[in-house]
Structures are given as structure tokens and as C-alpha cells.
Amino acid sequence: METNRQCFRRGIRDGMPIALGYFAVAFTLGIAAKNAGFSALQAMVESLTNNASAGEYAVFSLAAAGAGYWEVAVMTLVANARYLLMSCSLSQKLPPETSLAHRMLVAFDVTDEIFGISIAYPGRLNPWYTYGAMAVSIPGWGLGTFLGVAVGNVLPLRLMSALSVGLYGMFLAIIVPPWKKDKVVLGLVLLSFAASFALANWPLLAGISPGIKTILLTVVLSLGAAVLFPVQDEERGEGQA
Amino acid sequence: MKNIWLYILVSAGVSYIIRATPLVLIRREIKNRTLRSFLYYVPYTTLAVMTFPAIMEATQSPIAGLLALLAGVFLAWRGASLFKVAMACCLVVLAAELFLVPGGGIG
């Protein structure tokens, strides 16, 4: 059993590639924020309080268009709705006796990446692991946004391009290893790739935001898998390691 | 001109409520087997959907993104750590784009 301190340290270690990737992504977000009239400080505060790339991008575009506050609220809800599903999953990953304070802190940074590594944590999640990852990734995210507004395009395009796939590499490190033990996950991931590719290239759906497509596919495919291949009792929790 | 700080407040509030509600309200283990299975599969589906084809759109050259995907799958299958897989994907793109994207050598 790891101590909280060890968990925190491991979270920092696993959070480092996230922080690097975040820095690059946030940098490009900062450029969008600048175009929407945000100061470097305002953009950084937006990033530190929202922790969401697609959601923030939507806010910046709406702000640039002078949209109303209700529109911003609804768009934030839609762009971030997938986090609702992720939080549901995480609620089952935390020990049931986890305190309200821990739950509220973990909730603050449910992002694609932090969620990903938290779910990959063996057995029940120790919140300190997530805090370790947050401790490095949130500053990377905030600083990247700040610098994106402040200094614009100083990172070479080649470097930005390379850094931008780091996040996807992490996703692969989470979704691939279970393939050996669980062929349903293998089939589900390959099917998800194919369906996502098809939807992205279907002209009829061009007007639907990527966030909505993600939610639709996640719900439909996960539900299908749950009905056809319900997990055995001993697989739960530990099966996700 | 709207107030930017109000935009920030609204988006921050909505973002937090979305994330906190399930974590605060669902305090017990869910017993329903289908629902449990659904929540077990959600991470894999959602991360897979977000990875592809997006990884090919994140890079300057889609082929570089595809090569990063293949390298990432191979290394993850071989049991490489999160950090190694992520870094390898970055290096693959960096190397591939030296050939695939001519003249982009801004240093």
C-alpha cells in the first residue's frame, strides 16, 4: 500500500508529460484568447478556473463575437458535458468513504488527461495521486495560456506540432495495455477509432461540434458494450488497472 | 462590449458544476451491472474517440500523426510507461515532419 506522499510523487511523475502537452495546447489557446480581447491575466484565469481546451476555445470564440452570458453558459455545458460522464466513472473509482472535500478537489481538474491517468491507477484511486498530477499540469496549462497571449508565436511550428501529439500518446498508454487481458476493450477501442473517423468525415454531421460527437459515440458504444459484454464482478475496479 | 471577467465567472462556474455534481452525489458503489459495465467501458471509448482521427489533425502532416499513433500503440502494447509512450510519439512526429514538411525548419 502506497502512502499519500508516494502517491503524490507518482502523480507528479505521471503528470509531467501532461504538463508539457498542456503547455503547448494552452499556448495556442492563448493566441485565440488574445484575438478575443482577453489580457494575458484574464486568459490565464480563464484557464486556471476552466481546465478545458474545447470549452475554453468555445468561450473565446463566443466572447470575440460579443455573445450573451447565457450563450456562454450553454456552450460551456455542451463542450464540457463529457466531463459529467468522466466524473460518474471517477465516482466509482474513488473509495466509497472518500470525504466531500476530496471529492470536490478531485472534481476541479477532471480533464481528459487527468481522468485518463486517474482511471489507469491500479485499484481504488488515491486522490493524492490525482493531486500530484494537478500540481504540475495546472501550472503548465495556466502558464501556457499566459504566454500564448503575451508572446504569441515564438515556439517553432515543428516543436508545437510534435508536442501536440504527446497527449494522444498518453491516451494510447492507457487504452492499449488492457487489450492483452480484455479482448472486449480491444474490439471497443478499434470500433471507437473507426466510428470516430467515420463521423469526423461524414459531411452531414459537419455542423456538429467535436464535443457532441464525442459524447454521442461514448454513450452509444459504451452502452452497447455494457449490454453485450457485461463485466464480471471480479473485473470491476481492478480490471481497469 | 461585454465584461470579460463575467465571461470567465460564468464559464468557470458551469465547468465546475458539471464535474463536481457526479462526484459529490454518487457516494456509493453502483450495484446495477449494466450501469457498472457502462462506466467501466466509458474511459476506453471516450479516450479512443478523442485520439483518432484527432491525432492526424494535430500535426502539420497527417501522416506524421498516423505514424505517432502506430508507434504509440506498439510501445504501449510492449508495456512502455505513460511518459515514454508520450515522448516517443512526439519524437516520431518531430522526425517524420523533417521529411514530410519541407521548409518548415524555423528554429
C-alpha termini separation of chain A: 15 Å
Distance between the termini of chain B: 39 Å
Largest sheet of chain A: none
Mean pLDDT of chain B equals: 89
Amount of beta strand of chain B? under 5%
Helix-strand string of chain B: HHHHH
- Tell me the number of helical segments of chain A per DSSP (H or I, 4 or more residues long): 11
Structural class, from helix and strand content of chain A?
mainly alpha
Which two chains have the most extensive interface, and how many residues on each?
A: A-B, 110 and 84 residues
* Number of self-contained structural domains of chain A: 1
* Largest sheet, strands/sense/barrel of chain B: none
Number of helices of chain B: 5
| N-to-C SSE string of chain A, H for helix and E for strand | HHHHHHHHHHH
Keywords summarizing the entry:
heterodimer, A: 241 residues, mainly alpha, 0% strand, globular, B: mainly alpha, flat
Question: Your description of this structure?
Answer:
The complex is a heterodimer of chains A (241) and B (107). In chain A, 74% of the residues lie in helices and 0% in strands. Chain A is mainly alpha-helical and 241 residues long. Chain A has one domain. In chain A, helix 4 runs parallel beside helix 11. Chain B has 107 residues and is mostly helical. Chain B has one domain (2-99). In chain B, helix 4 (62-77) runs antiparallel to helix 5. The relative contact order of chain B is 0.08. The model of chain B has no long low-confidence stretch (mean pLDDT 89). Chains A and B meet through helix 1, helix 2, helix 3, helix 4 and helix 5 of A and helix 1, helix 2, helix 3, helix 4 and helix 5 of B.
